[in-house]
C-alpha cells in the first residue's frame, strides 16, 4: 500500500523559484506513482504584483484564498488521512504567521511533518516572544529540508541538527 502524502505548497502563478520547485514536485511522475498524493496551493497571490500589494480588495482576495486552502487542507486531513504532510512555508515575518496554522492543523491530525524551507531570516525573529513560541511548536518533531548546510545557522536555535536534511535545488 502506498504512503499518503499531503503536499501543501506554493504553486504558480506567480512564478518564482519556490513555486517552480513546487510545480516540479506536483508534476513528477515518480513522486505521484510512488506515493498517493493530494495537493493544496498555499499561495495567497495569483500575480507577482499582488505579492506586495496591500489594497483592501487585494487583502480580501488573499484572505479568501487562504481560507479556501485551509478548509481544503482540513478536508484532506479528515478524508484522505495522509501519513505525512510536506509543506513549503516561509520561516519569518507575516508570511510565517500565515503559513504556521497549516502546520499546526497537520500536527493536530498527528501527521509526520516535512518542512521544505527555501529561505532564511528566522534568526532575526527568534527572540520575539510570539515567533519564538510558534517556531518551537511548528518545528518540534518536524523534518526540515534545507537547500544548503550553510542555512542551518539561521535556524539552529530552534531546530536540532538531526531534524535536518539537505537537498540542493535541482538535485
Q: Roughly how much helix do the residues carry, as a percent range?
A: 40-55%
Helix segment tally: 7
Biggest sheet strand order reads 2-1-3-4-5-6
Shape: globular
Radius of gyration from CA coordinates: 16 Å
DSSP, total strands: 6
- Average of the residue pLDDT scores: 91
Instruction: Kindly estimate the percentage of residues that lie in beta strands according to DSSP.
Output: 15-25%
* Measured distance between first and last alpha carbons: 27 Å
Largest sheet, strands/sense/barrel: 6 strands, parallel
Q: How does the helix and strand content classify structurally?
A: alpha/beta
Unreliable residue stretches:
none
Secondary-structure element series? EHHEHHEHEHEHE
Question: Could you describe the 3D structure shown?
Answer:
This protein is an alpha/beta fold. Helices cover 44% and strands 17% of the residues. The protein has a six-stranded parallel sheet, sandwiched between helices. The longest helix is centred in the middle third of the chain and has 24 residues, at 56-79. The radius of gyration is 16 Å and the shape is globular. The model has no long low-confidence stretch (mean pLDDT 91).
Amino acid at each position: 500500500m502506498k504512503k499518503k502524502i499531503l503536499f501543501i505548497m506554493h504553486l504558480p502563478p506567480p512564478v518564482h523559484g519556490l513555486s517552480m520547485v513546487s510545480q516540479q514536485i506536483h508534476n513528477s511522475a515518480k513522486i505521484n506513482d510512488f506515493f498517493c498524493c493530494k495537493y493544496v496551493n498555499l499561495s495567497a497571490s495569483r500575480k507577482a504584483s499582488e505579492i506586495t500589494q496591500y489594497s483592501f480588495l487585494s487583502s480580501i482576495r488573499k484572505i479568501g484564498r487562504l481560507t479556501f486552502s485551509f478548509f481544503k487542507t482540513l478536508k484532506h486531513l479528515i478524508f484522505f488521512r495522509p501519513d505525512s504532510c510536506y509543506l513549503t512555508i516561509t520561516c519569518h515575518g507575516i508570511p510565517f504567521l500565515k503559513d504556521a496554522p497549516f502546520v499546526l492543523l497537520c500536527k493536530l491530525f498527528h501527521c509526520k511533518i516535512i518542512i521544505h524551507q527555501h529561505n532564511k531570516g528566522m534568526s532575526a525573529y527568534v527572540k520575539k516572544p510570539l515567533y519564538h513560541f510558534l517556531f518551537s511548536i511548528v518545528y518540534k518533531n518536524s523534518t526540515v529540508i534545507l537547500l544548503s548546510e550553510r542555512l542551518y545557522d539561521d535556524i539552529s536555535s530552534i531546530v536540532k541538527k538531526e531534524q535536518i536534511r539537505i537537498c540542493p535545488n535541482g538535485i
